[in-house]
Amino acid sequence: MGFTRRRWLTHFTVLAAGGCVTFFARAQPDRKPAKILVVGDSLSAEYGIERGSGWVALLEKRLTQDKLPATVINASISGDTTSGGRSRLAGLLKAHQPTHVIIELGGNDALRGLPLTMTEANLSAMAQAAKAAGAQVLIVGMQVPPNYGRKYSDDFFALFASVARREGAALVPFLLKGVADTPQAEAMFQTDRIHPRAQAHPTMLANVWPVLKPLLR
Q1: What DSSP line would sit under 147-171, residue for residue?
Q2: Tens digit of pLDDT for each residue in 170-179?
């Protein structure tokens, strides 16, 4: 009988009075399949693009391609803020019991001019709730255009790293790296100049995947 690290069958032999009693312990899997909950806004909800072409859908395909046992629950809502995500999270955690939670929120907070302290507090509360439910957390950062003012833009960008560091979460510094910060950026966005076209979403996944993959192993 062959023995491996992943699938094993242990044969215990116990000598008993008058004979030999044999016990078999059945193998248990190394780990249960990951369940990834994405709580985001329109950038994750495939706003304005064909269904199945967004970065979250591409993530599902990448997991299959890499033969990583995992399911993805996309609980993203266009227009959502960190306050909305915070209010929804408890129900999502209870319903889905995820092993990993990706939080992609904050952009709409900035568009609405909400206080940065509120955004940071909401992200921290979400990370804490996810960890308390036994999930690993990945924070996805965002930037705002320079017309918001240098200090506001810098402080907004920094708050994601601050939350990740304080809560022990993984961090994707900027979801739109390689999309919004390139000379051809205008071609990568829809006519509203806010939402990326489908062609930008593989780059968005490329920003998330190197951070997420180690958490799955």
Answers
A1: GG-HHHHHHHHHHHHHHHHHHT-EE
A2: 999 999 999 9
Q: Which of 78, 96, 155, 195 is labelled catalytic? A: 195
Nearest to 56 by CA among 43, 67, 70, 69: 43
Q: Which of 40, 126, 123, 38 is nearest to 78 (CA)?
A: 40
Q: What value does the mean pLDDT of the chain take?
A: 89
We find that the CATH architecture of domain 31-216 is 3-Layer(aba) Sandwich (3.40)
Alpha-carbon distance values, 215 to 17, 20, 180 (Å): 50, 45, 27
Q: What confidence category does residue 28 fall into, taking pLDDT thresholds of 50, 70 and 90?
A: very low
Rounded to an integer, the average pLDDT of 122-149 is 95
Structure token digits, residue 42 = 């329109």
192 an active-site residue? yes
Side chain identity at residue 85, one-letter code: G
- Report how far apart, in Å, the C-alpha atoms of 127 and of each of 18, 102, 115, 139, 185 are: 60, 9, 19, 8, 31
Crossing angle of helices 55-65 and 201-216, in 10° steps, is: 50
Of 71 and 217, the structure prediction assigns the larger pLDDT to: 71
Q: Which of 42, 44, 76, 124 is catalytic?
A: 42
CA distance 78 to 50: 15
Q: What pLDDT digit, counting tens, does each position of 35-49 carry?
A: 999 999 999 999 999
